[in-house]
Amino acid sequence: MAKALRVDPRDGVATLLADASAGDVVNVGDTEIALAADIGRGHKVALAPIAAGDPVLKYGFPIGHATQAIMPGAHVHSHNLKTGLEGTLAYRFDPVDTASALRVSAATFQGYVRADGSVGTRNEIWILSTVGCVARTAEHIATKAAALIGDTVEGVHAFTHPHGCSQLGQDLEGTRTIMASLACHSNAGGVLIVGLGCEENQIKALLAAIPESRRAMIRTLTTQASGDEIAEGCALVAELAALAKAERQPVGLDKLVLGVKCGGSDGLSGLTANPLVGRMSDRVISAGGRVLVTEIPEIFGAEQMLMNRAVSEPVFERIVEVVNDFKRYFLHHGETVSENPSPGNVAGGITTLEEKSLGAVQKAGRAPVADVIDYGARIRMDGLTLLEAPGNDAVSSTALAAAGATAILFTTGRGTPLGFPVPTIKIASNTDLAMRKPGWIDFDAGAVLEDGFAATEDALLARITDIASGAETAAERNGEREIAIWKRGVTL
After folding, report:
1. Is there a common fold for 2-82 and 124-243?
2. Cα→Cα distances 445→2, 161, 277, Å
3. Section 238-245 average pLDDT
4. Average pLDDT for residues 15-33, to the nearest whole number?
5. Cα-to-chain-centroid distance, residue 200
6. Is the pLDDT confidence value at 86 over 90?
7. Domain boundaries, the chain
8. CA-wise closest residue to 482 among 120, 122, 128, 121
């Protein structure tokens, strides 16, 4: 007998945990229901009659409205359910206290303690390019320098992008800010900034955006002024590597900064991987650590859940501002705020943005929202921080790293090989994906369906601390490391 999971007693739908055929009897808790159609894993089945126009509830909240009458046992998806999202909204602060529910953890990891008190999970040399013109130059320096310095540090990595020139105003400022924040990252024992010389994103202006206390571990190279930029770059990397020598030390979870992200979600993401990551968020925050959550367009429809957890009314108002500004950004470009989920999300069982968002916000756990920061900014407070960034996997993950995340928990139901500047831990929502793509996946959250959350939570925490202590992620083994910058302006 197939099984389906109803998240909340108020829900009118349940999610299939495996493919099932029309006529099959499905177990939903203490009840059974016969399917009226073939329904795939991660897709929804109606548990009771739903009238046309009525809201459809999942997670105890509306995920849209029925476009036609739906009978028990029917498949509930894009053919009979539509979004209820439109434009900007007025919100009311209705605070809830959830902090007392956090589970205290005494776990530790072996990290690199920096002079400013921050702790890195890696000790690497990062090469940042100011402009796309020197992207390949930065990569050549990284490859040659890594061979020259050996294991003095844990790696030499170039992070390049196509921007830095032909940009204006906020667009240029966004590029400069994200690069300056990456240059301050605690996983980088040293940073080489490689520029061309004539670009808009001048090295001098970029350095001015970096705290003076950090500049001792930064070197710069203007390639137009160099006779042999590759040789000079390698010499600068060797100089930084000698300064960056360090040993790992035992530290608590209070020194960990987690970024939480989902990509290629399916109908099980909100039932397994995302709530599991939410428990990791709570563990880190309860220990005094920091967690960053972002993907603002992918909280539309669930934003009130985060707003009600704001530690104060000013923080609530800042969340409202970020959410409505992002909605206006969509509307200004003639797009609807509900232009989501992706084709892969839909194939995996997610029907509306409300459904996707209600599953996605679970990565933030139950902790209060302590702060809200702009795109490109660095984290400044313990606890849970909301970061302004779009949902795009590469752009938002880069923003998480730049904000200070020393590891990213990346949940996925469909799979992706992408990796970013910091260890990116891929967590599969279903066991099938974990088994099919072991070269991509670091942890199988589908285990919660058999082993329960408590045991799986402990296993994931152990995996996270191992990786924070130096164990490679799948993306690191595969050489998957990249950045992407949110471009918002005209190109000259």
Report:
1. no
2. 19, 33, 9
3. 97
4. 92
5. 29
6. no
7. 2-82, 124-243, 250-477
8. 128
Distance CA 69, CA 67 (A): 7
By C-alpha distance, which of 245, 212, 214, 206 is closest to 125? 245
Check the CA dihedral 120-125-129-135 and report its sign: negative
For residues 237 and 144, give the distance between their C-alpha atoms in angstroms, rounded to a whole number: 10
Question: Cα-flanking dihedrals φ and ψ of residue 208, to 5°?
Answer: -65, -25
As a whole number of angstroms, the distance between CA 402 and CA 470 comes to 20
Q: Which amino acid is at 327?
A: K
Q: CATH number of the domain at 124-243, please? A: 3.40.50.261
Q: Which fold has domain 2-82?
A: 2.30.130
Token couple for 433: 């994906």
Q: Which segments of 273-392 does DSSP mark as H helices, in order?
A: 273-286, 303-307, 313-332, 343-347, 353-360
90 pLDDT higher than 90: no
| Mean pLDDT along residues 309-333 | 94
pLDDT at 102 over 70: no
Whether residue 431 has pLDDT greater than 70: yes
Single-letter amino acid, residue 381: M
Residue 29 has pLDDT above 90, yes or no: no
